[in-house]
# Entry
Amino acid sequence: MKRSVKGDITKIRVDAIVNAANTNLNGGGGVDGAIHRAAGPQLLEECLKIGGCRTGEACFTKAYNLPANYVIHTPGPIWHGGKKGETQLLANSYWNSLMLAKENNCKSISFPNISTGIYGFPKIDAANIAIETVVKFLKEIDDSMDVIFVCFDNLNYKIYQEICPYY
Ligand code: AR6
# Structure
C-alpha cells in the first residue's frame, strides 16, 4: 500500500524512517537536520561509525528518540541538469531503502521527498520516479509493505496528490 501525507516525518510512527542524507552521513540541514535533532546525538555517533554511504545506496541505524525502530539513510543525487545519471540514482535510493527495510522485517516505511530540497531535483520528475519505484517494489517484491510519502512543502504535497492516483 502507498499513500502520501503532509507533515513532519519525525512525528509519524513507522518501522523505518528514510533520511535524505549526504554521503558522509554527518548530518546537515533540511530533513536530515530535523531527523538528527529529533533522534538525539546518539544517531550521529552511530552514523559516523558507518563512515559514509554512496549516492543511491542505503545504510541502516537505530532510531533512538524517533517514533520508529530504524532510520534508513540514503544520499540522493545532486541535480546537475539531468545528464549525470540523476534519474537512476534517485530510483536506486528508493529501491535500496525499500530492500533494506524488507531485509530487516520492517512492515512500514516513510519517505521524505529525497533530493527535492537542497539537492535541487525537479519536484515533478522526482515524484514520478519515487512513485514508480515504490509501485515496482510493491508489485515485484512485497505488496504488504506500508509506504508513506511524507510531503513537507505545499508544492510536493500537491504534486503527490495529483500524480499518485495514476499509478
Ligand atoms: N519532514 C519531512 N520532509 C522534510 C522535513 C521534515 N521535517 N524537512 C524538510 N523536508 P532536503 P535533499 C523536505 O533539502 O534535497 C541535507 O543537508 C523538504 O521540503 O532535506 O535530499 C543533507 O545532509 C524537501 O522536499 O534534502 C544533504 O546534504 C525534502 O525534505 C542535503 O541536505 C528534501 O529536502 C540533501 O538534500
Q: What stands out?
A: Residues 86-103 form the longest helix (18 residues).
